[in-house]
Amino acid sequence: MRPLAFILALCSVPAFAQWISYQAPPNGACFFTRSNFRGERFCLSANERMERLPSTFRRKIASVRLYGNAELVAFDQTDLQGQALTIATSVSDLGKSSDAYAGSKYWNRRIASIRVVDNPGHVHSAQTAADARPAVGACFYREPSFRGQYFCLSLGRHPVPREFLHDIESITCYGDVQVIAWDHEDFTGGRIRVWSSAPDLHEFIREDERNRNWANRIASIEVRMKEPKEIQQRENRE
Predict the structure, then answer these.
(1) β-strands 113-118, 70-77: how paired?
(2) Burial degree of 134 (CB within 10 A; 0-12, 13-18, 19+)
(3) Least confident range of 22-26, 52-56, 126-130
(4) Domain count, the chain
(5) Among 13, 72, 77, 238, which residue carries the largest CB count within 10 Å?
(6) Whole-structure pTM over 0.90, yes or no?
(7) What is the structure's pLDDT at 219?
(8) Would you state the pLDDT for residue 234?
(9) 3-state SS class at 10
(10) How far apart are CA 34 and CA 37, in angstroms?
(11) If you average pLDDT over residues 140-150, what whole number do you get?
């Protein structure tokens, strides 16, 4: 490339690219061009808005992940106009209707402008709901390192709440417990056993599929007391 052409190319970089964030905010939202939080993405903090999405993302958003106390108001036209949808929890696939958003299928690849708002009352976050953590049990987080939205369980078998289905990336254990989790909702399918807190499920490789990990895979859970040490050692060898 000639020097002048190179300078012109630098000057032509969209303003959007100069300030856009690709890092997940502690309180805000990230937007993805593919379902299950994959593909190209950008992020906004709470109380930020974008009245006209750049062509890379305009009417191409397929999934949305929320962090902290943020909620999203999405519009199907630019300038925050047209039909609007308020989203208060992460949606892994806007192409599928969910229990929480019966009309979400309409919004797959239709969002043209967005506003992210702060609503401290809509969800318990890891910073504000410490009293929800059990003395004996486990908590399950949407992000690695025990961050983001979470829910907690006591001893027993439990289906994963719908809003967290296949959306768990770290686990904290409280008391002398272990966690057994499955990738199907009926306690079947692939299984993982966690003996202590797991800060990043990306590091737990599936035994049945060595090229895949356990992040965003869990659908049903059992929390139980740890078994005697010799039984643990035997099962670890299996």
Answers:
(1) antiparallel
(2) middle
(3) 126-130
(4) 2
(5) 72
(6) no
(7) 94
(8) 45
(9) helix
(10) 6
(11) 85
Residue 234 to residues 105, 198, 226, 228, 230, Cα–Cα distance (Å): 48, 21, 13, 10, 6
What element of type H or E holds 76? Answer: strand 70-77
What DSSP line would sit under 182-221, residue for residue?
ESSTTS-SSEEEESS-BS-GGGSB-SS-TT-BSTT---EE
Is 178 exposed, middle or buried (CB count within 10 Å of its CB: 0-12, 13-18, 19+)?
A: middle
Strands 63-67 and 156-159, sheet pairing: unpaired
Structure tokens at 52: 């006209």
Q: CATH code at 99?
A: 2.60.20.10
**Cα distance between residue 102 and residue 173, in whole Å:** 34
- Classify residue 3: in a domain, yes or no: no
Contacts of 238 (CB under 8 A, 6+ apart): none
Which domain covers residue 204, as residue numbers? 130-237
The encoded tokens of residue 222 equal 């059992």
By the 8 A CB rule, do 138 and 177 touch? Answer: yes
Is residue 155, in this structure, part of any structural domain at all? yes
CA angle, 199 as apex, 195 and 65 as ends, to 5°?
130
Digit-coded pLDDT (tens) for 99-121: 444 455 578 889 999 999 987 65
Tens of pLDDT, residue by residue over 204-216, are: 988 767 678 999 9
- Cα Rg of the chain (Å, integer): 21
